[in-house]
């Protein structure tokens, strides 16, 4: 119905535009976490689909900021393996709180003595009722089948948990300062949406699109590939940039666009060398980077560079790059005339295995 969408042509578009507000409202709010999680050295993150990729981002945060041992598990595979489980805490990430595989994984963990935390967007869900402790992502109802604002809210909650657990107060202050600036920087992406529409126009006739990222940009690249596949039905394949020479480079030709996340972080130089490798094979490269990265890329023979504002610290790049990838997927699907809010064959919540 048009009422719920307001001025927006799709729920997905509305939900993408809500993301800066979610960061504004929740970014600097303190998050209560249970003492079991504060004390845990070993944390398991679990989820399906986009929630799994958000959890993957959370792994980087918890390892690098909070110094925890983090295991990442795809819920849809996890419980079939009968894995050996030690003491620890499991955080299950799920927008709906109804995903059958995630629920099964939680039950398995509880049977094996783990303390469970459900990070859900829908309160009173099946996962809320199952877990020992619930963290609400507070993104508001998400109607579009392809997750956007829920992903961002999940990533934000995982960052905030990591900030709760981290020792380095100077670094924590730096991230907090960055979180205050982040909503404005996200807004600035919307001002440049016509460039993303042009990029989508280039992508719309391709048979497949490669997405590359390194470090935290890797799970974001995977999420971008998933968004592209589910919305536009153009197969998106995400790879770790460092894996390029181990296979994906064989896919590169003049017809296969390569979207590269190249934020100015500790991996920038290495990612630039991947860009050169793709260009040398006549691959059409679309770079997504920040101001600082773009300055360094002048003269590199890529098809296009989309530039978002440089955040104060590396932890915040994913919020800007994932929004960019969501919009590219959205406009590609729009150019193709796809059913954006309700992609074929997909459901918002998968309640069967
Ligand atoms: C479905 C949805 C995805 C979602 C995944 C996990 O496949 O279409 O958008 O990421 O389920 O759902 P959850 O509710 O557990 O986050």
UniProtKB/TrEMBL annotation:
KW ATP-binding (keyword) present: no
Localization per record: Cytoplasm
Name any one GO molecular function.
glutamine-fructose-6-phosphate transaminase (isomerizing) activity
Q: Which reaction equation describes what this protein catalyses?
A: D-fructose 6-phosphate + L-glutamine = D-glucosamine 6-phosphate + L-glutamate
Q: What is its EC number?
A: 2.6.1.16
Q: Which GO terms describe its biological process?
A: fructose 6-phosphate metabolic process; protein N-linked glycosylation; UDP-N-acetylglucosamine metabolic process
Q: Which GO terms describe its cellular component?
A: cytoplasm
> What keywords were assigned to this record?
Aminotransferase, Cytoplasm, Glutamine amidotransferase, Repeat, Transferase
Q: What is this protein called?
A: Glutamine--fructose-6-phosphate aminotransferase [isomerizing]
Organism of origin is: Holospora elegans E1
Part of the whole protein covered? 241 to 593 of 593
């Amino acid at each position: 119905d048009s009422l719920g969408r307001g001025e927006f042509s799709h729920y997905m578009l509305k939900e993408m535009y809500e993301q800066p507000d979610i960061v504004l409202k929740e970014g600097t709010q303190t998050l209560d976490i249970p003492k079991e999680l504060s004390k845990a050295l070993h944390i398991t993150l679990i989820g399906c689909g986009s929630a799994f990729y958000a959890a993957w981002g959370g792994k980087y945060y918890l390892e690098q900021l909070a110094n925890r041992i983090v295991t990442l598990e795809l819920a849809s595979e996890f419980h079939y393996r009968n894995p050996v489980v030690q003491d620890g805490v499991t955080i299950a990430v799920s927008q709906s709180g109804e995903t059958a595989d995630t629920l099964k994984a939680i039950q398995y963990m509880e049977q094996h003595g783990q303390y469970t935390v459900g990070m859900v967007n829908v309160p009173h869900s099946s996962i809320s009722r199952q877990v020992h402790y619930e963290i609400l992502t507070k993104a508001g109802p998400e109607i579009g089948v392809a997750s956007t604002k829920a992903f961002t809210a999940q990533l934000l909650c995982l960052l905030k948990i990591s900030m709760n657990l981290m020792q380095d107060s100077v670094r924590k202050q730096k991230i907090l300062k960055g979180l205050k600036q982040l909503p404005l920087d996200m807004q600035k992406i919307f001002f440049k949406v016509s460039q993303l529409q042009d990029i989508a126009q280039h992508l719309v006739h391709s048979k497949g699109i490669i997405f590359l990222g390194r470090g935290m940009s890797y799970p974001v690249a995977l999420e971008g590939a998933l968004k592209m596949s589910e919305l536009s039905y153009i197969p998106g394949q995400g790879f770790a940039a460092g894996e390029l020479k181990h296979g994906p480079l064989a896919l590169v030709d003049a017809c296969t666009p390569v979207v590269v996340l190249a934020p100015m972080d500790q991996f920038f130089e290495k990612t630039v060398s991947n860009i050169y490798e793709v260009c040398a094979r006549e691959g059409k490269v679309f770079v997504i980077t920040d101001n600082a990265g773009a300055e360094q890329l002048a003269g590199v023979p890529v098809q296009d560079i989309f530039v978002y504002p440089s955040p104060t610290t590396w932890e915040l790049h994913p919020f800007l790059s994932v929004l960019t990838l969501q919009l590219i997927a959205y406009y590609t699907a729009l150019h193709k005339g796809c059913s954006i809010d309700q992609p074929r064959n997909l459901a918002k919540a998968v309640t069967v295995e």
